[in-house]
Automatic annotation (TrEMBL):
<protein>
    <submittedName>
        <fullName>Phosphoribosyltransferase</fullName>
    </submittedName>
</protein>
<dbReference type="InterPro" id="IPR000836">
    <property type="entry name" value="PRTase_dom"/>
</dbReference>
<dbReference type="Pfam" id="PF00156">
    <property type="entry name" value="Pribosyltran"/>
</dbReference>
<keyword id="KW-0808">Transferase</keyword>
<keyword id="KW-0328">Glycosyltransferase</keyword>
<feature type="domain" description="Phosphoribosyltransferase">
    <location>
        <begin position="17"/>
        <end position="149"/>
    </location>
</feature>
<dbReference type="InterPro" id="IPR029057">
    <property type="entry name" value="PRTase-like"/>
</dbReference>
<dbReference type="GO" id="GO:0016757">
    <property type="term" value="F:glycosyltransferase activity"/>
</dbReference>
Amino acid sequence: MPKIPVKVVKWEEVVDLSFRLADILKKENFNPDVIIAIARGGLVPARLVADAMGVYDVLSLKVEHWIVTASHTPEAKIKYPYKVDLQGKKVLIIDDITDTGDSLILAEKHVKENFNAGEIKTATLQYIKGSKYVPNFYADIITDWTWFMYPWNYWEDEINLLKKVMDEMKTTDIEKLKEGFKESYNIDPPIPLEKIMEEMKRRKII
């Protein structure tokens, strides 16, 4: 059976982490003119931080790395690269978490080369200790690697995690899969597995 440490993150935790991050930025006196969210994980945190700090210019960059839950692609890539002239403005790049660090490394490089920013800083809700990239700001530090299931990823993560269990157990029996899911990840799925299986059928995954 696949054994992956998983933590389900609730909406209120996301809000708390985002506001804590905003407080850190205020204390450090870094007031960005523009916030760039790394899509998709950084979209919600970026909007919450922007609201807490009164930042009205929010952009995004689509960086692909973790295509399948807990299984990253060989290297991060920007799916839709573009250029914009920010005229020397202060820029804050936000993602949900720093794991390998590849997404932030790539995003920061792209912004430096294409956005004409005056100053660039990076921030995440959570930083996993041991990542090859340490963001300038983060609200929480994680010492033991864990896959964090954020609310914007509930469906996607549960589908991918359940598929791992199905492939291992060679069954579609929902009761057996519930047992296998609990044994593998030790979480109560935020979306019932019955609904997840229905969606997997709709997407023709099974």
